[in-house]
Amino acid sequence: MTTSLPYLLLALSTLTSVSIAGCGGAEAPPMPDSPAPTVTANAFILPGAVSHGDSAFGDEPVVVHKGERLRWVNADTLAHVIVADSPDATDLRKTEELPPGGEQSFIMTKSGTTRIHCETHPNMTGTLVVREN
C-alpha cells in the first residue's frame, strides 16, 4: 500500500499543529515560594573537652544569629549534656545526652547571652551568644 505525498503532508501538518497547541499558550503555574534555607551554625564539644575546662567549646564564645539553627556536635569520646546557666536568656535550655559523635539542633529565635556548662562535667564551661541579625 502506498500513501500519496499530499496525505502524508496533511497528517504531518496536523500532528505538528496538535503538538504545538499542547505545548504553548498557557503558562505553567508558578512554583510555590520555598522558605529560605536555615543557616546552621555548628558548635563543637572538642576532643578531650573535660581537660579543656573553660575552653571545652573553643577559645571564644559560641556565637549564632537569631533565626539560625544551632547544631551541637560532640567530637569528644565521652557523652555530654550542655545546659544553659540562664535558661530564659536564649532558646537553649538543655541538650539531650550527646554520645560521642552525637548531635542535636535548636532554631534560635531569642537573642541573648548565657553561660553554658556540661551537666556531667561541670568544669566544662563556655558562653553562648545569640545576636540580632
Biggest beta-sheet profile:
4 strands, mixed
Q: State the oligomer.
A: single chain
Radius of gyration: 30 Å
Strand content: 25-35%
N-end to C-end Cα span: 77 Å
- The CATH topology of the domain at 40-131 is Immunoglobulin-like
| Total number of helices | 2
Order of helices and strands: HEHEEEEEE
Low-confidence stretches at least 5 residues in length (pLDDT < 50)? 7-12, 14-22
CATH class group of the domain at 40-131? Mainly Beta
Going by CATH, the homologous superfamily of the domain at 40-131 would be: Cupredoxins -  blue copper proteins
Q: Numbering strands along the chain, what is their spatial order in the largest sheet?
A: 2-7-6-4
Could you walk me through the main structural features you see in this protein, from its secondary elements to its overall organization?
With 133 residues, this protein is of the alpha/beta class. It has a domain of 92 residues: Cupredoxins -  blue copper proteins (Immunoglobulin-like), CATH 2.60.40. The chain is built from two helices and seven strands; from the N terminus they run αβαββββββ. β6 and β7 form a beta hairpin. The longest helix has 19 residues. The radius of gyration is 30 Å and the shape is elongated. 18% of the residues are buried.
Spell out the blueprint of helices and strands:
Layout: H1 5-23, E1 40-45, H2 49-52, E2 62-65, E3 69-74, E4 82-84, E5 103-107, E6 112-118, E7 125-131
Parallel strand pairs: 1-3, 2-7
Antiparallel strand pairs: 3-5, 4-6, 6-7
Short description:
With 133 residues, the protein is of the alpha/beta class.
